[in-house]
Amino acid sequence: MSWDPPSPRVRELIRQGAEIALNPRPEWLAEIDAATLAGEARRAIAADPVLAAATRRTNRSNLLFWAAANVRAPGQPVPANDDAAPLAIARDLVRRGLDESALDSYRVGEAVAARLWTQIACSLTSDTDELREVLDVSLRSIAAFVDATVAAISLRMRAERAALTQGSHAERRETVILLLDGAPITGAETRLGYALDRTHTAAVVWSDDPDADLRQLDRAADALAGAARPLSVVASAATRWVWVHGRPDPGDLRAALDRLPAVRVALGSPAAGVDGFRRSHHDALTTQRLLARLTPAHRLAAFDEVELVALVTQDSESADRFVTRTLGALETAPVELRAAVRAFIAEQCNASRAAARLFTHRNTLLRRLARADRLLPRPLAGRAVEVGAALEILHWRG
């Protein structure tokens, strides 16, 4: 798409506006991110932490790409964004089984970006003729840029889809998807090289670091299985779905993750047979979504640790109100007071066991419990369930 070059004055105004867009306000980025991840059509992307993070990176990449082009050559057509972020998300969308309809988020982002750009343009000049020309050129430029970028990503998605239909990886992934969907499959164990009649623990192994060495994901999958061989499926470039027999050793896994700083792991609950294969995977996905939503600081969690928190934090605003109402001043008290109460409740209100769990003296624990009790809106006695739930939310929220 092309248009007549704008006047020198309008080119200068577009350049000034593009310089503003090169340093976007946080609230602009938040608005674009919220819009591109909202709605039923984008639910699958918003629910997947890796795809959601990739979408946010792509939003920034597109905004900065267009702005930088208009600083260099104001008012000239901008080619498709061929940076790593938008092309990487094409691969991940295909590997999640999504089609080009997922690119609807680009149109939503375009609408928000056009409105924000209009606000910038209106701040540059009060001359209506200048403003009309600025908006005429720049809004056509934004639309043409998004069209070109979406076309490039669609082309990449078709290439990725063709690649995925060939080879053993595609067969293994297809078999796993059919198992997860409950379809009857003959010879699944032979295709996967993995026994299904045992107890399984599923895991989601992923990285939200765009610069991560993705070989770390495969090393983490091996660490989950110990000396055995895991079943590992590439769910996206930065995500592996993994199954191992039995239950991974927590100590060994934590030690392995210390050597793999870019990796995060969400574990499902151990369960037997094909049904357990499915259920443990869904538990791992629930755990991953919780970690991504609440706790950037936590790199490892198991479903049995976070099941309650996952249930009560689906509505984050209600969960926040529950924490504040239940804990009162304890919510912002020193961390050792909250840890004392959390350990006390976890040990069924046994002070000696709680002190041992915290590696502290029993009298020290009792003093902390007494201080914490004074900060609670109502005494801990008789409200251990509510207080314990609120403290778990705080712990996993970080």
Automatic annotation (TrEMBL):
Cited Pfam families: GGDEF_2, HTH_30
InterPro entries: CdaR-like_regulators, CdaR_GGDEF, PucR_C-HTH_dom, PucR_C-HTH_sf
Span of domain CdaR GGDEF-like: 190-289
PucR C-terminal helix-turn-helix domain location: 337-391
Keywords in alphabetical order: DNA-binding
Gene Ontology MF annotations: DNA binding
Family: Belongs to the CdaR family.
Descriptive protein name: DNA-binding transcriptional regulator, PucR family
